[in-house]
Amino acid sequence: MRKDTIVIREIEVKDNPKIAKAIREVLIEMGAPKVGTAYEDAALDCMTETYSDKKKAYFVVENGDDIIGGAGISPLDNHEGKVCELQKMYFMSEARGKGLGAEMMKTCLEFAKQAGFKQCYLETLPYMTDARKLYRKVGFKSLEKPMGNTGHYSCTVWMLKDL
Which residue, 83, 61, 77, is CA-closest to 140? Predict the structure, then answer.
């Protein structure tokens, strides 16, 4: 795979089944629980519709006809204030280690700022060490407890970044 053939862009309807499949494959590969994580989210099968509000966006990593990753921004569920959540950031194995995570973070956080959010929250699993390194590198700090209520009770690492 050549990096010059890879594009980060907003999701389109045709991408819905591809990104759902990619996210579920990554979660299985990582040994993530199927309950209490994004794996069981109904939104996975209708991402374009889920992220159609002006305060929401989902971006995919496209390589030719393949969707090899993605990430989104949405207001944090069950929380008041100008806090968004970085959601469903997953990359297929062939997309990892190429700097795409940093590019995706830049894209998502820029959208969040333009949408008027002041902080960005995320939840992850403790053994997703590479992801946590990236989050720390771009300025996310660990929290002692979760914010809002995302329903992802299996994700026990919570982080927040000022925008």
Answer: 83
